[in-house]
Amino acid sequence: MKLSRNFPLNALRVFDAAARHGSFTRAGDELGMTQTAVSYQIKLLEERIGEPLFLRRPRQISLSDAGERLAPKVGEAFSMLQDAVASVSDDAGATLVIHSTPTFALQWLSRHLGSFQLKHPNIAVRLETSATIIDFAREQADIAIRWTKGLSPGLDGHRLMSLDFAPMLSPKLAESIGGIREPADLLKLPIISAGDPLWRDWFAGAGINDPGLERYPKNELGTQTVDAGMAMVGQGVAILNPGHFAEEVAAGRLYQPFEFTYNDGRDYWLVYPENRRNVPRIRAFRTWILEELKCTAPA
């Protein structure tokens, strides 16, 4: 089949979105089109190719054999087109928009981001922090750093670090009750953010199935950094990721009484849309952060 000026490139764009999302409705949301308009564009493409690209079932669609063969090639083609445009538009005024969890931004990025700026002085950075998982199709962001169990459909990325949790407190607070010798000793002290499910999970793993956490205030302080700050001044015990607070432990401001840590299956991931993986500023940040983590990882 020979391409011509009348070849339905817009229909291919719609097909790419529908194939990635597995839904005409979500494809329409991404492209700003109605479901009816998406269905019409898919029908045009099917008529042009002469094969059904989707199997339609009540409230569900799936790729046909022809659709399965076409989808990766179309996705790759649009990625190449986007890279081509990015290569001429990603100029010295480009801004890299990073969306990060507050804790990762405060405890890791703030301590290392200067290294990225030194290596890439032509890339401005805008950092936005929130615990909410953003939708790249609806919000402006180049990359996101998420606490999650893996990659969502349509996203590419890399696992950055394990996120394990353990109780931590100030050494002086531990001394105030004669030391922490067993997990039950922690319950003699105020528990910071006792409503966090990680507390119950950690205690269960440590052999205490009913720690009685309901007697503590169910505070939600939004970030480990705030919990850690309260712990360092002796206001209670916080459930924290020891890796984020290694400097505070080394300086004697925090103390981890037990080696046992709990992980609920979520870790930190760097994610970005699959079709933007080769945008120069995204590629530059990806290369930098993976190398920086490798160089700064504990021995």
Describe this structure in words.
- With 299 residues, the chain is α/β, with parallel strands linked by helices.
- The chain has 3 domains: 9-89, Winged helix-like DNA-binding domain superfamily/Winged helix DNA-binding domain (Arc Repressor Mutant, subunit A); 95-162 and 266-296, D-Maltodextrin-Binding Protein, domain 2; 166-250, D-Maltodextrin-Binding Protein, domain 2.
- Helix content is 41%, strand content 15%.
- It contains 10 helices and 9 strands.
- A 5-stranded mixed β-sheet has the order 4-3-5-9-6. It has a two-stranded antiparallel ribbon with strand order 1-2.
- α1 (9-21) crosses α2 (24-31) and α2 (24-31) crosses α3.
- The longest helix is centred in the N-terminal third of the chain and has 25 residues, at 65-89.
- The relative contact order is 0.15.
- Belongs to the LysR transcriptional regulatory family.
